[in-house]
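Hi U.,

Before I forget, here's the chain from the pilot set. I'm dumping it here mostly so it's searchable later in email.
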Amino acid sequence: MHITFCNLQFEIEDERIYLLSVQNERKIFAEVQVCGENKDTHMGVKMANSSEGARLRFVSHTQLEDYLEIVQQSDLVEVKTVFNAYSNGSFMRIYTEVKNVADKEIVLEEVSSFVLTGFSENGIDGAEDLYFTRFIQSHHAECQPRKFSFKDLGLFCANNESQKRIAFANIGSWSTKEELPQGIIENVAENKCLMFQIESNSSWYYEIADKQGDYYLYLGGANLPFGGWSKSLKKGEVYRTPSVALSFGKTLNDVIGEMTKYRRYIAGKCEADNNLPTIFNEYMHLSWDSPYALQTEKIAPVVAKAGVEYYVIDCGWHNEEDGDIIYPYVGQWKESKKRFPEGVRKTTDYIRSLGLKAGLWIEPEIVGVKCQEMLDFYDDSCFMQRNGRRIAVMGRYFLDYRNEKVRLYMSETIRRMVEDYGADYIKMDYNEDCGVGTDYLAFCAGEGLEACAKAYLKWVDEIRCRFPQVLFEACSSGGMRMDYSTLSHFSIVSTSDQIDYLKYPYIAGNILSAVLPEQAAVWSYPVAKNGGLDLNFNYTKEWVQENVSKDKIVMNMINSFLGRMHLASHLELLTDEQFDLVKEGVNYYNSLTEVKKSAMPYFPLGFAKIGDSIVASGFETENKIYLAVWNLNSQAMEITIPILGKEISNVSVAYPKNSSTKFLSTNDGLKINFESGLVARFFELEKSK
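Structure:
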């Protein structure tokens, strides 16, 4: 008996069910390791050959047009794998549930969300044709994809099976600090691409490795060797893995486009965010951690004239300590009388009187180690712990959202921020990683982390439901928790804390491979000192006239066009002519709202690498290509951006409108003559009908 579902084919025979590979070979697609049971392999720490994988027998399947459920069982576990497909694309979502059917308690050590085998008709002999793109991350250097051959990463045919893996394990509460939970496998000989995504806001794991002459892809959450995770199940209890997603296509743009369609099904929605409003946040290159009423009241009228909709006051509206020492003292989330002597509400009311909406920042998952008021209020059970001690990182303890006292206090905090302080927008930040997790009220630290991460998102849903008029932003020191478990609960996410506008194009130019354009918040700070961070730098009108060129303003605005504009910096110091460029940029950004909500990412040069002279990225609709092009060389350049497979009838510089940049649409692509260095332009290319 055969089952066909989306791009997958299964075969049932002799009480077993198999997933058929591209070589039409039978492969298992679920791996479950039970503690104390034999793992039948000597191939190192690979996830293959788990104790239950080969023991599973077919029980049943349920198939509808867009749904497939396959149930298998061994003597110890029942394994249900659930597949969801969607009508408008080549992509699917998968998760697995494991139920203890034994007469005793068991402990799970490894559970796959899904295992897919076979990327080449030549099996492991096809290594030279197989490439893997991993999405490297770091603070200030988010979304930096790098492409490697399987062979160069050590997967080559020396034996029928090896100890080698292409793998990555995120361990901790920053889910994307080193890599994004996604990747692309490309078979250049057969012109096929596969993209995967793991939906976890804590620890997760992927593995590409060889088994019995073929390659497999293992996707899942944490496990015992990578994440310190185990799960105890009493008889009848069930564990559900994180969901994963797969998309299929022939090219890079294809598979990212298909994943983009899928992400739109699961992305967090918010009525207040429906028109993708422009946001001004006074943190970057302005107030940093020390906002105060007089400065906000000076800047806000200028922001209103720019056409922005939200004005956000970041860290420092609370607490009386100075901004350079504030973090170990935070946790009460009560207004600062020192910075806002007449109350935060007076300032947010003033912001609203200008036709803007007001926002406030919070870090809701931590308490500073010197915040005595909250340390007296909370007991040990309110904090994540290991070995009976609270986990402390960077002067902060981590709250445990499984605890009702924590949830009640933080729910009251959000109510206070919204109803008493007048917040229409709340930026929810998270600036530390707790590590492997908490063993308090948990079988082990990895399981405790998973439970805490789920509890936090459940609370987020509760407050979003309670305050539907408020726009909630997810932030984790920029993009350190930029996963689609988080992004299915928030409509907007910070992509980076990058402070140098000349480096941001390397992030903005790649970010649509990781985050929807309607969710990806990007900073734009026209008035900023180049290079390193200088919190004490004094901006003046004279400095601005000498150091802020039109091209600098234009590049800062274009940096944010592909995603969500987070405008910042001392706009009040710009001349009328300079400020007009900001207003023009805001107006053009607003014109892209409806386009962004359905457009597909477009990467004509592939992915950008830090140090590239030219970056080109955009999004595409049925009728147009919207393309940002950055010349990050200090010299003038003449370049050609390939627009392959597209017939273009008309090209224009959409921003800035008065640009003198010369360009020409040719058979080879878009030819652009940048007459100077460090310049960006935003183009619209109309397709021939």
